[in-house]
Specification:
Strand order of the largest sheet: 10-9-11-12-13-16-17-18
Radius of gyration: 57 Å
Shape: rod-shaped
Helix content: 40-55%
Strand content: 15-25%
Mean pLDDT: 82
Largest sheet: 8 strands, mixed
Structural class: alpha/beta
């Protein structure tokens, strides 16, 4: 029996020796999973990292024990962050970039990606007295839980992933530093992207946690500052909440929003989300990814609801040495992370065709080993993201703080009274001040230090998809640094369609319209209403229509204010030129007949026509023709005053002259021989009559103008396109003037009637009667035209009536005499005129004789009648 037992022990020892030999030759073959790792040292840095995207909690009934939390969905970038911390410690221990006078240790705690698990791992590290500082790869939701714990124990902690703005509260998170910028910087960047691409109507979705809620709210505030509207603001549960997600997707299906900003971490089940979106039939949309999932957005292009993804992520620095280190065949096989090996094996089987447990074979040939290492580099390069660098630089920041403490000189320290901490007896709280003041140059040549808020200078990159060997990759298309966004090439961005999404709630309102905002809607949703009345808009999306000036009107398209046309005859118009030409012709004709009369002033016809009356009448006609010019052009106050006094004065003078001439004619031809009055007396009386008639008219006009001064008026409200410009005058003046002139014309008719039997060679009275008769007809039409017409039409009537009367007077009074002078000089002799006068007197005598004879009585016999 003893022999048998000895043989069994010997065999077992042999197996152990063989196993150890294999380990020494080929490395630990697929060793089992462990919860963490430790590197011994004088002073240790603690590491808290998740390796999985989420956790699941089982047995929550508390009937058979406490709940059990299980990590699910291995996430390679998390693994790379934890590996970066270990790699940095290894470099420091090798004194590659920094030379510490002691051995730096490292203690790592893995936790499921949840606040409860994170708190447990933190407490485990704090329980290790050798841990003086912590590097945490926890997300914001977990870091919010960790922060107060480490603050209570006064241990400096550097967060490499948490970006929530809640963590900036120094009263709560007293010992917290971050090697990532806060969400406020990211929110500003995302708002700048929306503004850069001129998007006005976007959707906003976030996870229902600290990262999603805080980030999304800050982002929405930034959008409002830029007048960009948010169609919806939705928060989705990270775990569970499928019904809530389905409800949102149904609402999204009914929405026309083209661009959706998505604040989320990898905790959300994106595959379920986009698959459900495809099942519902959501049209392709542009998704803007926050830094929580931008680096893995290329995985979701297989879904129809994803037209394209534009993402932002924190700028990082390359870590080529780490990739070479981790891709080593032996280290991969020795990895203590079972989840990593399984994920890597699955990947190389799918992409490199290295299946059948190739990695875990006891022996592999050199060719296979080479293939595995090449595949590992590809896998790790794809898995690495900015958190690897932020973790790497966090370890170096702590190491530099320890180095500063180590080199501290007495009285030059950062503690009270210039004291220096003891590196051998370092208290945790003493490291906080030195970490706050750390300043060094990293292995990429960049200067590193913490800002006042214990964050780093914000620096982001903008990512977009590229197709590479039928694999979608997210590539850099822009950057954001020092609050300045740079997009390298707009044309190189893949939108999923031929053009950039418009992202507007409504089409732009064209010039000529204005926006009418819909009640209870944001300012990006509106109706386009055409500008009404005399208003215009000459820009797109005008909020109001501008009113045109009093002297302007809106064009048909309501885009331009045009000058209103004065409702007068301007000097450049054809009709104005015609009126002026007619006036000139009339003036020349008047001058011509005046010269004719002056040249033939000794002829009987001219003498019989009263030379003085003819010359004065011609002068008045000449002035009357010049009145036309007062009606052309835009009237002024002075012009209106002149017109008020002179209007109708020419007609009154002409009527007065006609009355005077008829008076003289009648008196001369009816002058009794026994009471013969000198002809000069009649002429003297006639001029007195003209002066009196003119003075009455002029006096009334002056008094009326003094009481009711006339002035130019612009009626802006009468018409949209024209401005009636006229002289404001009272109807009283017009009516009184016309009544006075009608009275004068009646006198002319009476005198003309009395002169009806004048000699045939002297028919001036008949012509005057004809002028008066025609003037009365014109007056009948002019009075209703004065009251009914307005603007240019009224002016036109006035000018036409004026010219007609002038030419009527000129032709009827002068042309007949000019005809005798030039074409019938035989009639223009004293003998002919005397003969006609004698014949007229003889006829008159004979008529009287016959009348006497008819009235005599037969009983009286023959009696001589003295004519």
């Amino acid at each position: 029996m003893a022999t048998f037992i000895f043989a069994m022990v010997a065999s077992f020892q042999l197996l152990i020796i063989v196993h150890l030999y294999n380990i020494s030759v080929n490395g630990a073959i697929c060793s089992s999973n462990v919860g963490g790792m430790t590197i011994e040292g004088n002073i240790s840095i603690g590491g808290i990292f998740p390796l999985h995207e989420r956790s699941e909690v089982f047995s929550t009934s508390w009937t058979s024990g406490p709940p059990v939390e299980k990590c699910v969905d291995f996430h390679p970038p998390y693994f790379m962050a934890a590996a970066a911390a270990r790699f940095a410690v290894m470099e420091i221990r090798e004194k590659k970039y920094i030379d510490l006078g002691f051995e730096l240790g490292y203690v790592e705690e893995e936790f499921c990606n949840s606040p409860v698990s994170a708190a447990s791992a933190t407490l485990n590290l704090i329980g290790n007295a050798n841990v003086k500082a912590i590097v945490s790869g926890a997300l914001s939701s977990s870091m919010i839980t960790i922060g107060p714990i480490v603050a209570h124990h006064a241990i400096a902690t550097v967060a490499t992933w948490a970006t929530s703005e809640r963590l900036t509260d120094s009263n709560i998170y007293r010992t917290l530093f971050r090697t990532v910028p806060g969400d406020q910087s990211q929110s500003l960047l995302l708002a700048e992207i929306a503004n850069y691409f001129e998007w006005e109507w976007v959707g906003a979705v976030g996870t229902d946690d600290a990262y999603g809620r805080d980030g999304l709210r800050m982002f929405i505030n930034k959008l409002k500052e830029r007048n960009i509207c948010v169609a919806f603001e939705t928060y989705l549960q990270v775990t569970g909440g499928k019904d809530e997600m389905d409800l949102f997707l149904n609402q999204l299906n009914d929405s026309s929003v083209e661009v959706i900003f998505f604040f989320s971490t990898v905790d959300l089940d994106f595959r379920y989300f986009f698959q459900k979106a495809d099942d519902i039939g959501i049209s392709p949309r542009l998704w803007i990814a926050s830094d929580g999932w931008a680096d893995r957005a290329g995985q979701f292009y297989e879904y129809k609801s994803v037209a394209s993804v534009l993402g932002v992520t924190i700028a990082d620095k390359p870590l080529p040495d780490m990739l070479v280190h981790l891709a080593d065949y032996t280290r991969i096989r020795q990895s203590s992370r079972k989840s990593f090996r399984e994920n890597f094996e699955e990947w190389i089987c799918e992409h490199e065709n290295l299946c059948n447990d190739t990695l875990c074979k006891k022996k592999n040939n050199q060719n296979t080993i080479h293939k595995i290492e090449i595949a590992a580099r590809k896998y790790l390069n794809k898995a690495i993201n900015y958190e690897a660098y932020t973790t790497y630089i966090a370890v170096y920041a702590i190491a530099q703080a320890l180095k500063d403490i180590e080199l501290c000189e007495d009285r030059k320290g950062l503690l009270a009274d210039g004291k220096c901490p003891s590196i051998k007896n370092l208290k945790r709280w003493q490291l906080v001040t030195y970490l706050d003041n750390v300043n060094f140059t990293d292995n990429n040549g960049s200067i590193f230090n913490f800002l006042e808020n214990r964050q780093i200078e914000p620096s982001y990159i903008v990512l977009n998809s590229r197709m590479n060997n039928r694999i979608v990759e997210m590539v850099k298309v822009g950057s954001y640094k020092h609050k300045e966004l740079k997009i390298f090439d707009n044309l190189s961005i893949y939108w999923g369609t031929s053009t950039k999404p418009l992202a507007i709630c409504n089409a732009n309102c064209k010039p000529g319209t204005r926006r009418h905002y819909i009640e209870n809607e944001q300012t990006c949703c509106f109706k386009c209403i055409e500008c009404s009345g005399n208003t215009i808009s000459n820009t797109q999306n005008a909020d109001k229509c501008e009113v045109c000036g009093n002297d302007q009107y809106a064009d048909v398209n309501r885009t331009t204010c045009l000058k209103k046309i004065p409702d007068v005859f301007l000097w450049g118009e054809i009709i104005s030129v015609i009126f002026c030409l007619i006036s000139v012709v009339g003036s020349l004709a008047t001058v011509a007949v005046t010269c004719t009369f002056y040249r033939h002033r000794e002829t009987p016809v001219v003498k019989a026509s009263s030379l003085s009356h003819s010359f004065v009448l011609a002068f008045v006609l000449l002035l009357s023709f010049q009145m036309v010019y007062f009606y052309i052009g835009i009237p002024t106050d002075n012009v209106c005053k002149v017109l008020s006094v002179l209007d109708g004065l020419n007609l009154t003078i002409i009527l007065g002259i006609f009355c005077a001439k008829l008076y003289v004619i009648v008196k001369i031809f009816n002058n009794k021989q026994r009471f013969k009055i000198p002809t000069a007396a009649f002429y003297r009386y006639s001029w007195i009559l003209v002066v009196v008639i003119t003075a009455i008219h002029l006096a009334f006009k002056i008094i009326h103008e003094t009481i009711y001064p006339s002035h130019a008026v612009r009626d802006y409200n009468n018409s949209l396109t024209i401005i009636p410009v006229f002289c404001r005058e009272t109807d009283v003046g017009y009516i009184v003037t016309n009544i006075y002139q009608l009275f004068l014309s009646l006198m002319c008719f009476i005198f003309a009637f009395r002169a009806r039997n004048l000699p045939k060679n002297f028919q001036e009275a008949r012509f005057i009667w004809f002028i008066m008769f025609t003037w009365c007809i014109l007056e009948i039409f002019s009075i209703p035209a004065h009251f009914a017409a307005a603007g240019r039409l009224k002016i036109c009537f006035r000018v036409i009536f004026l010219l007609l009367f002038n030419f009527l007077t000129l032709s009827a009074f002068y042309f007949s005499k000019c005809y005798l002078i030039y074409f019938r000089p035989d009639k223009n002799t004293k003998e002919c005129l005397s003969k006609n006068i004698r014949e007229r007197r003889n006829n008159k005598t004979n008529k009287r004789t016959r009348k006497y004879e008819c009235n005599s009585t037969p009983s009286g016999g023959d009696t001589d009648i003295d004519p």
